[in-house]
Amino acid sequence: MKAASPLDGLRRDMPDVARHLARIWAILPDARLVGGAVRDLLCGRAVADIDLASPHAPDMVMARLEQAGMRVVPTGLSHGTVTAVLDGHPFEITTLRRDEETDGRHATVAWTHDWREDAARRDFTMNAMSCDSAGVVHDYFNGRADLAAGRVRFVGDARLRITEDALRILRFFRFQARYGGDAPEPEAMAAITALSGMIDRLSVERVWAEMRRILVGPHVVRTLAQMHDAGVLAHVLPEGYDIGRLGRLLACGAPAEAVLRLAALVSGDVAAVARRLKLSRADGAALARTRGEPVPLPGMGADVLAPMLADHALRDLSWRAWLRQADLAGQRSAAWDGLRAMLDGMEKPVFPLAGRDVMATGRASGAMVGRVLAQVRQWWLENGCTAGHAACVARMNGVLHDGPTSAT
């Protein structure tokens, strides 16, 4: 461990946050840091969110903070959460809870004053720790030892934790990749394997949100292989998957882009995957385009690449090249690197003619304008997008003299 207390690292690396936190503790002295903030501060990782818990009801928490002049937002009162905003820094403060009823997707909660009871409803031991204003870590389930050992372990009975919220199956693999060792904890894997079908009950939006984070996280190939072994990946991607292809993509040095990695992983119909997982319009379109044509290849010159770049986004062409490199080479390659460097250094060609150029001749109008432009643009593409405005005008005049072909 890099710090005896989570507050040591917070004061050193995030002094402004530590100062704001001290203000909150002056008003709510019995509140504690909880969850990921404690975990990541203990192991010296960057902290994304500062979350606290309090034994007081949310309306009392809000009242105390507002009386002290703080801006407070009721971000999730039904679950006991309010957010104090200090100089633009959000601090979520949630009332201690216990689960009254769960259905694998949602939970009905009740307030409690028992810190251990609140910790018992959390997913993993390393997420169940809390830290008070004195810097004392309260660890009811040996999460600190598990964190040090690289052991991702469910709090209490693994099966019970999963039946409370099936998303914990995917969260387990995400945390295993980031905090775990080479082999996942056996009890956890046994429970996940037995209950993997519960993933089908989750909303696909929640599934994709977790999968996106897994795909861009560390040890992604190993993690997906573990998900396959537990029968999980078949529920996430019933259309089919190829972990080996994704491994080859990573071996090529491809960037950590979730949609690109998904394109490599899926072996079935990517359009069907996009529809079922309800990917955003942008992500779904990017996924489809990544599997499209044309594909840049090493050895192609500017005369070949320029027409591609004129009609396709640079990112699409680059991602297609990454996928083809994974299929053809499966490793880093100077030739493929040179191809991408050439593409990156090229400006997107812009067709120099417009409808007004055709209209200025007085010999064309309406649909004919589009046909003439299309025919001249095709000629411009076939000649490497090098012809300038004057050359394209000359070509346009020739087309008008001969008459544009109806097929163009």
Automatic annotation (TrEMBL):
Names of the cofactor(s): Mg(2+)
Keyword Magnesium part of the UniProt annotation: yes
GO biological process: tRNA processing
Keyword terms of this UniProt record: Magnesium, Metal-binding, Nucleotide-binding, Nucleotidyltransferase, RNA-binding, Transferase, tRNA processing
Domain of life: Bacteria
Domain (Poly A polymerase head): residue spans on this chain: 31-153
The UniProt record lists the keyword Nucleotide-binding: yes
UniProt-listed PANTHER family: CCA TRNA NUCLEOTIDYLTRANSFERASE 1, MITOCHONDRIAL (PTHR46173)
Entry's family note: Belongs to the tRNA nucleotidyltransferase/poly(A) polymerase family.
Protein name: Poly(A) polymerase
Lineage: Bacteria, Pseudomonadati, Pseudomonadota, Alphaproteobacteria, Acetobacterales
